[in-house]
Amino acid sequence: MSVQERKQRERVERERLIVATARELAEQQGWDAVTTRRLAERIEYSQPVLYSHFRGKREIIGAVALEGAAELAAAVRAATSDANGPRERVTALAHAYLDFAARNPAVYDAIFQLDGGLAFAQEDTPAPLKDAFAALLESLAEVAGNGVEPGLFTELFWASLHGLATLTRAGRLPPEYIGPRVELLVDRLAVV
Q1: Which value, in Å, is the radius of gyration of the alpha carbons in the chain?
Q2: What are the angstrom distances between the C-alpha of 56 and each of 8, 34, 112?
Q3: What whole-number distance in Å separates Cα of residue 167 and Cα of residue 171?
Q4: Strand segments (E) across the chain
Q5: Region for residue 145 given its phi and psi (left: phi exceeds 0; alpha: psi -120 to 50; beta: otherwise)
Q6: What is the pLDDT of residue 33?
Q7: CB contact set of 135 (below 8 Å; sequence gap of 6+)
Q8: Contact between 47 and 37 (Cβ < 8 Å)
Q9: CB 68 within 8 A of CB 124
Q10: pTM of the model as a whole
Q11: How far apart, in whole angstroms, are the C-alpha atoms of residue 139 and residue 6?
């Protein structure tokens, strides 16, 4: 291995460490606790080293969002892969989405609530964000209904799931009714 390859590998490892540490700190204490100073202390590198990877907290949030979007896509695909039929697939998708949001609140916020400097629903949208939407579209397109554009239906269903996730986490909706809410959402929106 050349010196250049070793340096590149070390750089990638440091970047992963920064993102993992930011994510851990945000999940434990919230995003307000994630500062470049605290991150530098936790990873035991100087702030200039951290800034050599990310220009600031916004870019770190963006990196966490991209990583989280890939994980969300994988969770949705895993949940829907063994489902029998469209109804079961859409129900599994909804539960996987809501479970991801509940288990990873800081990551979920990085993807959907915070400014990570990422473009959504545009040509320059990063691939992991496009893939997360594609993971939803794969199951939802078949239940959009006649004459309904599948992408538009997916946006509506996603918005409904996002509302459920956000309102439940904020204590505005009691968590014990997630199952009935998902069933009602599938019954009313999906053509199965």
Answers
A1: 19
A2: 21, 11, 19
A3: 6
A4: none
A5: left
A6: 96
A7: 72, 73, 74, 76, 77
A8: yes
A9: no
A10: 0.94
A11: 42
Q: What is the amino acid identity at position 187?
A: D
Q: Which of 10, 17, 11, 61 is nearest to 42 (CA)?
A: 17
The pLDDT tens digits of the residues spanning 94-152 come to: 999 999 999 999 999 999 999 999 999 999 999 999 999 999 999 999 999 999 999 99
The residue written with tokens 């979007």 in the block is: 69
- State the helix-helix crossing angle for 36-43 and 3-29, rounded to 10 degrees: 120
What is the distance of C-alpha 5 from the center of its chain? 31
Contact assessment for residue 25 and residue 34, using Cβ atoms and an 8 Å cutoff: yes
Tokens at residue 65, please?
A: 């969002």
Is the separation of the CB atoms in 76 and 93 below 8 Å?
Answer: yes
